[in-house]
Amino acid sequence: MSGAQGTPNAETAGRMVEEVLDRLASSGDRAACEAAEELVRVLMEFYGAGFARALDLLGRRPERPAREAVDALLRDELVAGLLVLHGLHPHDAPTRVAHALDALPQDVESTGFDPATGELRLRLLGSGGCGCGGSRDAVEQAARDTLACFAPEVTAVTLEADPASEPVLLQIGAGPPGSSSSGPSGRPPATAAP
């Protein structure tokens, strides 16, 4: 018997899993049989965590409208990841990418996505802190982690430099006040570096 849309119901699915495990056991490959049983256990834990999260999110405010309940599920990384994994997420990839970027602690904007390569190019908005590479690496890693759940189509993240937000370096000329390297005020002129 099948459930909705021709998918197996729980009883049929359980029998199919047992049949596959029995075939592996009868093959005599003990390692393959143990690996398959471990895989089934891990998948059960994964899906169980997803269902538990969905029930928790829905149960927090059972009086809320259905749209709000669905939105709460779609904002959750675990539930959204399961929906994406099975092609059930109602939002298209650009919407999911935008949602994932909004969830990041640092403001970034997309400067382009190449579906052929899976590369998403981002630009850091606002202050990047001290300008050191560690914070850029942390932003890239946070983007990769969040996008893995919401938009697995993105397989690479590149954080582009934003020339407007780069710090301006000042060079101060050397020499005593009044020397030929001094400006009209008697102090060395400050010049912006290129």
Folded structure, characterized:
- The chain is α+β, with helices and mostly antiparallel strands.
- The protein is 48% helix and 12% strand.
- It contains 6 helices and 5 strands.
- Strands 1-2-3 form a 3-stranded mixed beta sheet, with helices on one face.
- The radius of gyration is 27 Å and the shape is elongated.
- The mean pLDDT is 79.
Q: Provide the residue-averaged pLDDT.
A: 79
| Anisotropy-based shape | elongated
Distance between termini?
Answer: 72 Å
What characterizes the major β-sheet? 3 strands, mixed
Written as H for each helix and E for each strand, in order along the chain, the element string is HHHHHEEHEEE
Strand element count: 5
Strand content: 5-15%
Low-confidence stretches: none
CA radius of gyration is 27 Å
Q: Give the neighbour order of strands across the main sheet.
A: 1-2-3
Oligomeric form = single chain
Helix share bin: 40-55%
Structure classification: alpha+beta
Number of helices: 6
